[in-house]
Amino acid sequence: MKVYRKIMLFALVCAGAIGMQAQGTSALRLSLTEAQNYALEHNYSLQNAALEVRKAEATRWQTLSTMLPQVKAGFDYQNMCGYEMNLGGRNSMSSMLPDSITIGGTTFPISFPSSEPTGNTSTGIPMNPSGTFSITASIALTGAQIVGTMVNRVAIDMADIANRQTEHTTLTNVKTTYTSILIMEQTVQLLDTTLQNMQQLLATTEASVRAGASEQINADKLKVQVASMRSSINTTRRTLKMLYNSMLLLLGADVDTKLELTTTLDEVLDVDYAAKLTLGGFDIEKNYDYQLLQKNELLSRQQLNLAWMDFTPTLSAYYQYSDKTYFGKDAGFNMTPPNMIGASVSLPIFQSGTRMAKIKGAKISLQETLNSKHQAEDGLKVQYNQLCYDLVSAIENYQIQHENLDVTRSVFRNISEKYTYGRASNLEVTNASNDILTAQSNYIQAVMSVVQAQVALENLLGEALSK
After folding, report:
1. Distance CA 87, CA 126 (A)
2. For 407-423, what is each residue's pLDDT tens digit?
3. CA–CA distance, 215 with 209 (Å, rounded to integer)
4. 3-class secondary-structure state, position 181
5. CATH number of 221's domain
């Protein structure tokens, strides 16, 4: 009875652990469109591309802020440790000297002894501790700052294009991986069907061997083929698992998420739509690489303008307010004006040819950019023609391989039936089995070639991905 209770307790613990594990594992059922939308929201590469746009915008605002007034405040404290400003001695002509002195709007009394000594007597002004509060507003403007904001604007546009290109690439990768999973699942199904047929033939052959109607070598050959088929299925299943993991990474989902795909391969493989892509022509302006080349050309032109700005003057102006306060008993010696404004213009005259050399280098860089752009235009047009040829060839091969697979299946069923009734040899069965495996492999490869060629052409065209 105690043993029975221990077994029940262990079973309950295991069931609870399995239930907790099942609850901790999330699941996703996604069509191709839903998978692409999920990736747009959670893919880390896309998030970084969006952050690059925001970073470029922040850099532009940094440049713009240098063209706006800059205001700063400060407080300065001074203590001359009891020092007095010496105004010299007083002689018999003291009656001719003033009793006070006014400096900076402040009157300072000058006192002398009531009795007039025979020699000189030193007289001074106390230098009391003081503090000065100041506010300074300044602005400086150069041609380089203005062109710099234009350069930053181009950088923002390039980051935005790169963001959209990353988005398109992510959608492409999701579609390719999604299709690869569907193809691998169909491959497993085809191999399972073939394996079942081979196992039935093996069972028939072993029965014939026991009845003395067939030799053991025939059964051994079929056993090897069945084992090879199982190995191929296991390899395909491992590849399928790897593809599922790749899809989770693309989606930005947790690696332990259980993923279920709801779109079928026939729905993804739209041969008619793929064929229409080759008939629409090539609008190079929609190509993301070409758009980046255009912005790169504009950036080179702005860099040339930036080099010319070294010849422009620098304009600056400022305003300063100061409030000086003395902390002693008597007012101190204050020569600080409360308000001050100023302006300046500076023009570079001679820099030993540095500016002209910089302009020459910018012109050379611009010409290199133009050459690269023209070369890329020709390359993109050639690439478009080649991708159209590849897609047409892939579609034709897919149609051939699809028909060949149907024929090979019919031949295999025919040979298997004849072999069952002893009208076909073991060699014919082996050849038919190899033929159907080859036909299945060629068909799967043909499907993948159509998808890859279609996606490559869509990337070049900059078109929105099909379903």
Report:
1. 11
2. 988 888 888 788 777 77
3. 6
4. helix
5. 1.20.1600.10
